[in-house]
User: Fold this.
Amino acid sequence: MAREKDGGKRAAIMAAAKKLFATEGFHGASMSDLARATSLPVGSLYTYFESKEALVRAIIEEGWGEFFSNLADTLTAVRRPEVKLAIIVYRILPGLFEDVELITILLSEGARYAGLEEKLEALTALIADLVLELARERGMAMAFPQSQAKAALALYFLGSLDTVRLSKMAGLEIPTEDILDFVRLSIENTFRIDLDPSLAAALPSK
Amino acid sequence: MAREKDGGKRAAIMAAAKKLFATEGFHGASMSDLARATSLPVGSLYTYFESKEALVRAIIEEGWGEFFSNLADTLTAVRRPEVKLAIIVYRILPGLFEDVELITILLSEGARYAGLEEKLEALTALIADLVLELARERGMAMAFPQSQAKAALALYFLGSLDTVRLSKMAGLEIPTEDILDFVRLSIENTFRIDLDPSLAAALPSK
Amino acid sequence: MAREKDGGKRAAIMAAAKKLFATEGFHGASMSDLARATSLPVGSLYTYFESKEALVRAIIEEGWGEFFSNLADTLTAVRRPEVKLAIIVYRILPGLFEDVELITILLSEGARYAGLEEKLEALTALIADLVLELARERGMAMAFPQSQAKAALALYFLGSLDTVRLSKMAGLEIPTEDILDFVRLSIENTFRIDLDPSLAAALPSK
Amino acid sequence: MAREKDGGKRAAIMAAAKKLFATEGFHGASMSDLARATSLPVGSLYTYFESKEALVRAIIEEGWGEFFSNLADTLTAVRRPEVKLAIIVYRILPGLFEDVELITILLSEGARYAGLEEKLEALTALIADLVLELARERGMAMAFPQSQAKAALALYFLGSLDTVRLSKMAGLEIPTEDILDFVRLSIENTFRIDLDPSLAAALPSK
DNA sequence: AATGAATGAGGATTCATTCAT
DNA sequence: GATGAATGAATCCTCATTCAT
Assistant:
């Protein structure tokens, strides 16, 4: 039997590539740089990833996948919409915001190869349901028409990602906590809801 | 006397570069591509711009400069803060949003060479004053602490830019109009103000 | 295991580069010229040498190193100073003078990258000791003050190299033998010594 | 009538080029660099010199010409050979050695275009006569056969130039004075002559 | 599977010279 | 004559990928 492809090595490559792509840019980091960073021969990179593109794609897919499945899990596992929101806002978003490297790559030229827009569509769809739920429960007329809700979501999501990115990568002085606070406050105002942190703590994290 | 450096040629190079950088990415567009696109010999590109970096820098500087001076002009030329806001929201932002190429470059790796964060700081400072003015006039307690205002502004600004970019460049289906509507509505809600389009129309555009 | 870096290829590149740099000049010979001369793709040149500069440096280092270690070996392996001189003058110098390509490069712009002056200092130091030894043994008052000895050595060394170079590369009609004869005679006169060729033949060459 | 070619401008170009070629190398200094250094438009350089090559050639020709005509003048104007030698050694050589820039260019790749070897032949011929004269007058059997005299002269001449160059341009620590002293001493020893400085002072300099 | 040398098209940039003005 | 923009071949070097070992 031939040796198995080594999962640890694959992970190591992805980790190093994530850092490199984030700091140097997709084009700024060469496969040789990556080989050096991982102390692996160039050839090996190609036994784990078909191409440089495939590598970014994998990084984005994994990062996004984790974020997205956390989100989906929460939405299905939890019943009360305000708890869903609280978990998103106190656990899932902060987790994503921690990962500046992923964010940077997500917003970079490398994302060209990863279909960011479809991911956003899926996200939008998921949240749209949550919003509907909330509106129904609270007997609210939706503050925005559906189309604006989509714009609102994209704007908030991309806006926070980009703000986090610029803060951490380019020295813009805005603490991630301020961004999160603003997002929470906006949600609370929009849905006239109270997002108590304890709501999020109630459920065990995945 | 020899031929004068041709302003039209310089502009043509910038225009072509803007399009190329936006569609192919800063690294994806080579100077040879640009030469072909402008029907100019490579060498000529370098009589007008010291380097590829200098070229993006010029594009960003020019685009941002126009946007920013429009903004600054409005803020000094107009007295009533709600009119300032209306002009920003009905004239200046739409103008900026029209220029997807600029937006794309602004958010790309090319911006690495253009100090985007300083530009954002300047923008933030300008708007912060406007917000204070508004709050004072309306006798409102500020809805957010100062720090969150900064986060809020960055988030809204970057978020709309990025949403516009993805809509127009990557097929995310969100009309620019929805984005603008959402921004207006948010402002109206935040400041309990009414941003009638006619307020903006009142003043002659620059 | 992948192919090993091929020492023969490295040597072939150096040999071809040596010839090219000597005949065309460091700037006159392009890396493409070298690729053509070696029937190797340009890229391969760079798997063996980091840059064009590194390539000249290697050539100079190797050539000088061989010359210098021959010299140093002789000085330590042999006891009698007149035998040392004889070996230098009948074996080591002629060997160096044979290598016009090396000499040409040594005296060219390429040497800018190779610290010729430090090499000369080292050479001077080595010979200075020999001269002292000789003077002491022969009970001679040194003909020159120390400082002039340094000037004398540099002048003789650089002068012979340059004369050899111009003879062989530019058609100046001075046989290498004449240059060597003159150097020998000068030494014999200076130290009132007799440099019989047989003294040099006595020792086995390295 | 058209404006005359401006001699001052031509001289200024040559002076600046001399400095640039010496410090940056012939290839290292571009015509644009030269234009900047002279505050002259590139085009003007070409109204005074047909090409970059022609420019080095002119620099070498002028520098060498001055040196050589000084030498020739002395040899014809003065009768006693020891005075000739004294003038050469106390006035002409020091003058040449002062001009490191010229020396550097003379020994550089730029000299490729200037026929250095013919110049050396001419110099050799001139000095050979002087040597013969001396030998005859002093009733000496020539210390060297004619061929070695040629080698000796080339070696001394090129050697001192190269030593001066490396001292002043590359930090080799040998004062020009030491070089000159050594040359004088060598001549005095060779021809059993006394080169009193006052011999040189006797004649008015050109 | 592992390795890392090999490849050569393509990258940004320079530069001597020309020539329209 | 003076000017300096125009030119495009040529410069050094990089890099994703392949493939012999």
User: Anything to note?
Assistant: Residues 2-6, 35, 40-44, 47 of chain A lie near DNA strand E (CB under 10 Å from a C1'). Chain A has two domains: 1-50, 61-202. The two ends of chain A are 36 Å apart (CA to CA).
